[in-house]
User: Fold this.
Amino acid sequence: MEEKNQQEKMAIVRQVELFENAFNKAKENGGMWLDNDGRKAPKLYLKPLQISAFNAIILGMHSDQNGYKTNQYTLFSEAKKRGESVQTKEKGVPFLWYNWNEYVNKHNPEEKISRSDYQALPADKQEDYKGIRNREVRSLFNIEQTTLPMVDKTTFDTVVKETGPLKDRTDVESASNEIRQGVENLLEQSRKKLVDIRTDTTGVAHYDSKKDIVFLPPASSYEHYEDYARDAVSMLMSATGHQQRLAREGMVVKNGKVSEDAMKQERLVVEVASAVKLQELGISAKLSPDSMKMTDYWLRELKEDPHLPDILERDVNNAIDMIHKAERGEKVELNNRVLQNQIADIKHILPKHYYVADEIKTLPNIDTKEFVVIKEPEQKMADVVLPSGASLGVENEIPGMNKGRIEHALQKEGYETVTFYNIDGSMGYRPDDSFFDGKEVSVNRMNKWNLETLTLLDVSDAVRRSGAIDFEKILMLRNDEGKWALYLKPENEKSFSVYPEKADLNLFFTTIKQGDEETSEKVRQDLAQKYYMAAQNSPDIKVDLFKSDATAEELARIDRVNIFKTKGTESTPSVILCMPTVNGEKLKAREISPQQWQRMWLAEDMQDYKKHLAASLFADVLRKDRTDAVAVGTDKSEQETQSKNPNQQTEVYEEQTEEKSRQSESHGPSESKGNKSKDESPKTETKVTAEFSPMLKQFYELKSKHPDAILLFRCGDFYETYSNDAEKAAKILGITLSKSNHTKDAEGKPLMIAGFPHHALDVYLPKLIRAGERIAICDQLETPRQEKDVTEKQKNESDNQEENKVSRMHR
Assistant:
């Protein structure tokens, strides 16, 4: 999961605090942890925007715990625009705000498009993309925290009468009926579109996950209708977590058994999701006696496990989205059934082939009394293709091909249903080749009352070409960025990989976790069929996990590659190393990942894969002749020995020729305009003023020498970048872009800042380079006081000394 910024961390603390208050309240109030009392679900005041399920429960708890009359919330800025400022000392509640400004191709994660480009695509093309969500944390305030009740009491009272507690509503009876009708509609739609709901006379509501059935006592058996509604909603939420529906993120199944911790976590998801739906219905949420025993465990896990709040958010949002889908009348099927439908859809759009039917047409013969039989043993069905005479009329029969005798002979062999066809005409026989998968095709004739088989037809090749194929291997592999890819090796064909959709990934892994080998194999085969046919229809979705972006020239320089495992000891674990020989010289070995080791044994050309792997690991060495680069990814000692001057800290990574690099170095800021060559492109000089801090002065001085590079500046435990560089880096890396309230940039505007922890450099640097950017790195060795002294000294240094700040040039 992505590293959280400080704002997100503070939001989680606040969210957990709300849960803690709610669960403590439940201990004192008979399990009641969200007292809704008929209030309508949380909304943004005067805004039609939809609120996610997890945001809704956070707002609901905030409103309940502060005794607000409505669940209506607003942004500080929106309240200010309306002239209803937030009251002094009021504390907001965190709201997770998501933007989808970029979309990525599901089959090619390298292809990303903007929101406007996505919206311009036709609907069928949009299905190939999914949104990349960008999360922000904003503070919302209940309208009672604003001055609305004071500056416009009439409007506030109207809002309370429309959305507040039952006792404050205009028509209490109508509001009560609305709640009951909402529950009945939910159950009716869920029964039709989501899960089978049956009446249970035992008096105990429960969900049978094996049968996928909700058992619910009649409403009349409950003392209060709200208790019936709570049980009904809770069982529906349990049904959404079926392994073939949502497969909760935190649900871990080992050898077909669910761990105790996983069961407790699932219970938390069910209780929170139930509370969200009950809040929509206007009913208070109440913990079951069993759940009451788990509250301390939940709170401890929420505080100690940094991933659990994110898991809870996603699982709750997905559960409620599924319920909403059923309420809208959309069918919610189990994942394996959805997969079967997708396979059928792909088959439908693929071109059909009729090689088998065309061959069968030539085989029946009136003179030799031969006909074709297509047998389907599992279904106990047989089709018989005659040269003619397949009509119902007895007078059309051909001597020696009596339909009654043929049918009788097949029935003796166990075929209960026999259907007759002709080679053409109204009863002609012409199914496509996929129809013959698993069927036996033969040429026969009658020998008295028995069938005599003359020839068996091999239709396997035609069936394979139709899409029904066998696979030697079906695996999930990780690429070097950690993304899962489905690796397929069809029989007698070359292997390839595709990036499956998230739902298919969940289906693949959760089915395996259930421990049912037969079901797992069926899902694997279905996924293989789906993506094989999808690749046949759209070959561009195939990806090659066994190649690098190395050039032919670079690969040619690699003489041989030795990959081996070291022998582990008690103190030192075994590692896998790659040691190539480049231009006759053995290089120092570098470690490879277990995923790269696994792919080596799957590669159809192992030697070719090893060369590409070495080219990727040692890219800095292979390109050394064209650059003064120090190896990106080499250890510290190697960098120090290659550095000409340990006090010179700037490292520039570029994709230019050696000659161009030397030219770039030769043009320092000390050159006068008259000394510039005619073909040299003009450079924009940044004015460094005395108002900047010593560090920012140094940044702009170095930036003036490398205006086309993003400058990463070491500041304590972080690498930071500023101004336009910060905007570029934030967009490429997906890190937070912030604006300084105290420091101005060279144009007098608030300084833009983006950064990441120094230990993450090896993660972010390759991303910047792959994006085509030229990168400069400046490490900060002196303290701020020392930096100030150095800055004063630099005023008297010569231009040549200034140029020596740049120590190493890199590709």
